[in-house]
Amino acid sequence: MEPTTAGHPPVAATRYRFAIFALIVVIALVNYIDRGAISYSAAQITSEYGFDRAGWGAVLGYFGYGYMFGALFGGALADRVGAKTVWVIAGIAWSVFAIAMIWAGDLGLAIFGGSALTGFAAIRVLFGFAEGPAYSIINKTMAAWASPSERGFAVSIGLLSTPLGALLTAPVAVGLLLLTDSWRTMYVVLGLAGFVLIALFARVYTNHPEDNPRVNAAEAALIRAGRPAQSPSAAAAADDMPWWSFFKSKTLVFNSIGYFAFVYVNFMLLTWTPKYLADEFHFTLSSLWYIGMIPWTGACVTVLLGGRISDWLYRKTGKLVIARSWFAAAALTCTTLCFLMVSQATSVWAVIALMTLGNALNALPNSVYWAVVIDTAPTRVGTFSGLMHFIANIAAVLAPTLAGILSAKYGYSSMFVATAVATAVGVFAMLQVRPGVGPNRGRQEGKAVSA
User: What is the pTM of this model?
Assistant: First the structure.
């Protein structure tokens, strides 16, 4: 409700939260381009250091080891010190390690027994650790800044950076490589861009909307409207909820497995699509800048549409199990069928069309996984989002590494079959999810904090 004063009309609510959402998307875009740019450097790096296909898969997979633990500790730290502090620390760190990528191979040759692969392992693990907190603190940020009635869509806005970042990685990375003819210069530019954006973020962001001078009382009231009131004793009990209570919740654990399926698809496509297209269909770097964008075009739409659909399903049915669990399971079922068909396709345009459709369907319920955490454990969003991200990002290691091993031994079609298996597991997992039923909480179907 808009505040009024005697004899004066209601004061219109500001809309500063949408500026925050937009800035988060831009920062996360740079974060995503940073991690995906190496895929377009495959020809230069493998030629310079002599990596074979399995070795290149290992280079791509090392990022995931750090990423898992960065997500885990970043989410928990955000609950303790606030999202802003973690955003700034993580943003500075990933920009530093983006630039440090230029010395990765030479560091291994000079220090680690002449092994360039070990040098890449060290820098990629640290790089992944620095980037790991991003999506856990996006969820923490959206939980603080979005009203319950728009939370599904707000979460999907933050997650737009996943497909949009992957889409833009192709023209940005290829453009920088063609302009400079140097993968090292590309990383310097990306690192500097990260420093600039984090400096801007530190100036305009606050952990709570009501603390921001650009947010008026009407907007603050709008954001807080509809959130359930907690007694001091209940709030204290929730705040004391230990991190291991996450594993007492069937919903949170199976939701994490569902998100694992999403991450598997995402990292397999992000890391292997450029090399796969180059090896199988002979695309050159000058054509990959636009061909590499195509598989991500549909996902840029569906990641936003999915949040809207989930919110609409909840408003219509009043059942989170339909709006979250069944919706995600249906999308993952269709994703599974698409990647099975990719493994059998022989035409380049059939492959690209099916990859695009499968990726779009995979992205459709992306916001669901994060919304389930808010629905189920609203006072532990940072910590439990980090735990979900940790479990799911086992796929950040497994997808690129397994794809390299399978493609070397059985051909590229096998990596698409493995992807279909991962999404089929996700279907089963999401059918077990009951949002709103969490640690130390009774069933609250239809009364959850998320809309």
Answer: 0.79
